[in-house]
Amino acid sequence: PEGIGYAALGGLWFALWTLRQGRGLRPIATWLAVFWIPSLLLEATRIAYFAWPLPNTYYAKIESRGISPLRWDSKGWLQLREWAGRLWHGWFVPLYLVGLTGTQRRRLGIGAVVVGALALSLLWPGPARLRAIWLWPQLPQPPEPYVLLRTLALIGAGLGLPLLAIGSPGGRARVLCGQSLTLGLLFSVYANGDWMGAYRWMSLVSVPASVLLAVGITSVADALERACSGAPAWDRAGWLAAVGLVGLVFPPHASQTRDHVYWNLNETTTSVRERVRYTRSIARRTFYEGPIVNLDVDQGAHLWWAPDYVEIDMAMLIDVPMSRHWYQQRDFIEEYIYVEKRPIFAHVGGWWAEHSGLRRYPAWTESYLQLPPYTDPRWDGPFPHVFARRELVLGPLEREPDRLATFGAVDVALHDLRVFAPWVAGQDGYLEAPLSRGALEGDVQMIAFLAGADRIVSWSLAPAHGLLSQDRWRPTEVALGRHAVRVPSDLPEGRYDLGIVLMGPDGRVLPAEPAEPAEPAEPAEPAEPAEPAEPGVSSPRLAVGEVLRAGIVQIVSPRGLQAAIDAARDGIDAAVARDDCDDAWARFVALKRHRPRDWRWHEQITPELHTALAGCRARRAALDPEHAAEQLARAHWLDHHSPELKRVGEPLAEAWLAEAHAARAAGD
């Protein structure tokens, strides 16, 4: 918004100078066209894209929180006064004045009298630092009319003192710099300040302030050199003055930067990068498939480091629905965050946790677990306060769930043991072993093993990946048990049995009891989990009490794995062609399980397949009106540039919008 103000100020002076020179109205009309035509086109584009006339950020709340630009104790004036003292710009006023007027005595004298009078007016009751000294008299608070007149005088001086530069060398530039500086500072007051400590609004005035400060320092150095040596060019006196005065700029800014770095370790871009790396590693470790909705602050850095994340902005900067509400509106916050968005990760701690109250909602206690602290080189110790949805590692247990084996004495059940693709020696293999448990005291340990004719290989698997202690599992939950294991490089090709051994808290093997025997499964397609001939408990290969699925794993060559990948791709294409989107998605997930931890390969194959899956979801929306919104939302996440999404979604959206307007008009 301040950019328009700068342009308007420049246009006003351009018009005045043009008329003074007798050049007529044509240059002014040309300037207005150059200014207004692009501005109106930009505004039309903004409204067409965002549907809002102004940026819908936190600062849009200025319309509802109220402003008091003439109140000396308002947030805007308090921040301006703090900036002037903290970074010494208030003490630089004489240099800014010389930058405006030069060293011509009459102009400088008028400016000095005005500045001096305003400085004296501020001594009642006095700056806070002076009032803290016992020698300073304890003056009563000035009456409100006095404070109001003083505030108006400061504004008038800021706009009027630059007029002293008219007619001086470089006068036009001095006037524009001086009034632009005042305009920017007044905008910071009108915007009611800023909650951050880096004085971001003051960046708007850095250019005109730098020009005036440089001109002022140069004028002082010129005058000092002439007084000392009479020479027009700088010698020792001029250079010492220039270096000394420029050097005054650095101490307060160095102090400010030091404090910002010290007190804001978890708000730097590098710290956000570490947090993104950590949350992404958790998503990969748990093999989560779906949109990563992230609840956090520091959105600029997140948009850079994690463009694939769906952000909920706790600071209400880039999130339009959040920017139009307050945390006190708990019904909206609960519905938007916990029902509609359902963030997978949430960074909620410290001041933000207290301010937002997000951890006091029942949905938070029900759905979130605290992740183990991670190491950030810039943080003093492990970094806490990062949470994740329980669904990363735990899913709902069906009322009558399938069970592969039970451990009745301790109320533990293994619900399945399956693989989705052949394995390759020297690469990663993927398996799933969902597990539930009841009221057993202590933790259950899980060992997976591969058994061939004369070779057994085993791996230790952490139930729920160790992210949630087992005593906090609920009887209605099952650990999803999605794991990748490294296959030894010297393992021969062929069929292998896959088994699970569970050990109790005392380290002893828990004996498995077979569930009801299942019917032999039909041979599975490559994209689906391979089924054993006879699931259940067999004669021991690793330990008495093991659960074994015979011949479920096939070790193949890299060429054999590629053939399986090609077949899986064909299966996805066939499912998309018949608009069976759920099957296509399941096959896409199974495809990635062929190379479970080859993240670069995942990134290579995902865009093309996401586009195909988005088109499938969009077409399903047209065929299934009852679930159209859900299908379109899924398509939008998969590929929001999908032509099918645009073709199907636009008419549906227009119809829904018309229904919404009608409901609003009816008071519904």
Question: Your description of this structure?
Answer:
- The protein contains 23 helices and 18 strands.
- The chain is elongated, with a radius of gyration of 35 Å.
- It has four domains: 57-262, no CATH class; 266-392; 397-556, Immunoglobulin-like (Sandwich), CATH 2.60.40; 563-660, no CATH class.
- Strand 7 (405-407) and strand 8 form a beta hairpin.
- Helix 5 packs antiparallel against helix 6.
- It is α+β, with helices and mostly antiparallel strands and 668 residues long.
Keywords:
668 residues; 4 domains; Immunoglobulin-like; 23 helices
- The strands making up the biggest β-sheet line up spatially as 2-1-3-5-4
The number of distinct β-strands equals: 18
Query: Helix fraction?
Result: 40-55%
Helix tally? 23
Low-confidence stretches: 518-527, 532-537
* Class by alpha and beta content: alpha+beta
Please state the average pLDDT score.
89
Instruction: Using the CA coordinates, give the radius of gyration.
Output: 35 Å
Whole-number count of domains:
4
User: What about the largest sheet?
Assistant: 5 strands, mixed
Q: How much strand content do the residues show?
A: 5-15%
The first-to-last residue Cα distance is 36 Å
Global shape? elongated
Per-chain topology:
Elements: H1 2-20, H2 26-50, H3 62-65, H4 75-86, H5 93-101, H6 105-121, H7 128-131, H8 144-160, H9 171-190, H10 206-228, H11 236-247, H12 250-263, H13 269-285, E1 293-296, H14 299-305, E2 310-313, H15 320-323, H16 330-341, E3 345-347, H17 350-356, H18 362-367, E4 368-370, E5 386-389, E6 394-396, E7 405-407, E8 412-414, E9 423-424, E10 428-432, E11 435-437, E12 445-451, E13 456-461, E14 477-479, E15 482-486, E16 494-503, E17 513-514, E18 547-556, H19 558-577, H20 581-592, H21 599-623, H22 628-638, H23 643-665
Parallel strand pairs: 1-2, 1-3, 9-18
Antiparallel strand pairs: 3-5, 4-5, 6-14, 7-8, 7-17, 8-11, 10-15, 12-13, 12-16, 16-18
